[in-house]
Amino acid sequence: xxxxxxxxxxxxxxxxxxxxxxxxxxxxxxxxxxxxxxxxxxxxxxxxxxxxxxxxxxxxxxxxxxxxxxxxxxxxxxxxxxxxxxxxxxxxxxxxxxxxxxxxxxxxxxxxxxxxxxxxxxxxxxxxxxxxxxxxxxxxxxxxxxxxxxxxxxxxxxxxxxxxxxxxxxxxxxxxxxxxxxxxxxxxxxxxxxxxxxxxxxxxxxxxxxxxxxxxxxxxxxxxxxxxxxxxxxxxxxxxxxxxxxxxxxxxxxxxxxxxxxxxxxxxxxxxxxxxxxxxxxxxxxxxxxxxxxxxxxxxxxxxxxxxxxxxxxxxxxxxxxxxxxxxxxxxxxxxxxxxxxxxxxxxxxxxxxxxxxxxxxxxxxxxxxxxxxxxxxxxxxxxxxxxxxxxxxxxxxxxxxxxxxxxxxxxxxxxxxxxxxxxxxxxxxxxxxxxxxxxxxxxxxxxxxxxxxxxxxxxxxxxxxxxxxxxxxxxxxxxxxxxxxxxxxxxxxxxxxxxxxxxxxxxxxxxxxxxxxxxxxxxxxxxxxxxxxxxxxxxxxxxxxxxxxxxxxxxxxxxxxxxxxxxxxxxxxxxxxxxxxxxxxxxxxx
Length: 591
Hints:
- By secondary structure, the chain is α+β, with helices and mostly antiparallel strands.
- The protein has eight helices and 32 strands.
- Strands 11, 12, 14, 15 and 16 form a five-stranded antiparallel β-sheet that branches. Strands 21, 23, 25, 26 and 27 form a five-stranded antiparallel β-sheet that branches. A four-stranded antiparallel β-sheet has the order 1-3-6-5, with no helix packed on it.
- Helix 4 packs antiparallel against helix 5 (504-523), helix 4 packs antiparallel against helix 8 (569-589) and helix 5 packs parallel to helix 8 (569-589).
- The chain folds into four domains: 18-127, Immunoglobulin-like, CATH 2.60.40.740; 136-269, Sandwich (Immunoglobulin-like), CATH 2.60.40; 288-412, Immunoglobulin-like (Sandwich), CATH 2.60.40; 478-589, Four Helix Bundle (Hemerythrin (Met), subunit A) (Up-down Bundle).
- Strand 5 and strand 6 form a beta hairpin.
């Protein structure tokens, strides 16, 4: 009996050990020695399905692909064969000998571990491995480049940054989106609208490529020294050919995601010469013409004319002040109306800016408008230049005579006080005859004012009671108060955007700023470092409906894209209404 028991126990142990030995879980690498510019594939393979797979941390590598899971079930001669594999694609961070630690998985309540794998990373090799791997092909055949017109400009000199996406002829791009936009700190920037993406042929590193221009930006540096242009980064869906072919022999394509960046650029900005700087220099840099003109030179007193101060040419037209004009004190002059007629292209900002003054003469006579000078820094000669206007004579044909005509005092637009002219009729409005009537003395007691003062407090008591009840009722309406508060908050943040309606770029900059300020106030976060995915996750945590969150993210995307596409006033109004509605909904739902 004892022998039979021992035999049974031995058979059970043997069956258990066989069952355990049949489970395989191992790590396999594509090679154990590779160059730093190559890619390593590691497969964690098992012959029985399990749970809670945990990969190693890959601390010496960057995971550029994976985990990719593949499962195989086959039957041969009535026997089932199972295989499951987790695959990763790794890029080494540095040269050296490294150990990939163990991966773990649970199979039938048992924890299995792979063996550690040793890998040696050498210097870059001339021909990276796996030339047909989609990740490698995409990495080698797509490039984002920032082309800068000048790296050592003067202060306030225009430079252009053109972002080009180069793609080899063997691959294609089906979609792209911006994931990191440069903020151009210490630059005044102006984007140039691009109407449609035009595919062009060019070369990159001496090889033929196709490229599209994604963005053009004109920058004016606002301080001297070394300034950094932040990189533009894109998430690109790349169509890569594979070794598989269709039934007609054509090569099949596969899509992979690739993050490309133009890289940061350093600009060395030269200061303007200080020793020769004119006293009246206000920061104009470029090539300009200067002129002062009058709408008419002859008129009568109390009529008006327009004096126009205009600077035209190519340069930083929006970044300096026009000189002020001076006029004789007998001419009344009003604050000017500023106007701009400029356009921006790859050569910088071109056009004209002007100040128009309304001038009204008070007396008959001839009045000179003195010459005014304007100074600017000429980039061609790298010297300061001064241009002066011609003297203008204003001839007032008819009007009162100025008794102080010999007074040649001058006034500017900021000093428009006029002389007071005395006449014999200046006190004609004062009455010299009176029509007085006697007054009767009345007592306050029992008067209308007395009874009003006595009864009004009594009448105010029921009104106060009604007002208090209405206030308590309103305070008790939590949901209604929340709605009113949300609507008020939306109007507060969107007020600046509403004032900019009709001005596309200013409107969408104000709208985007309003949305970010709203998030900053409600979530107590700095939104400048948050991605749209992070914003979406934070709003979801606050119990905001997914549809409302999606609407908010869509408006943010519209703010980015609308600056580079034609937008009508109707579409701007629609985006404004949508933003106000969405902010209100978020504030109502946020917990």
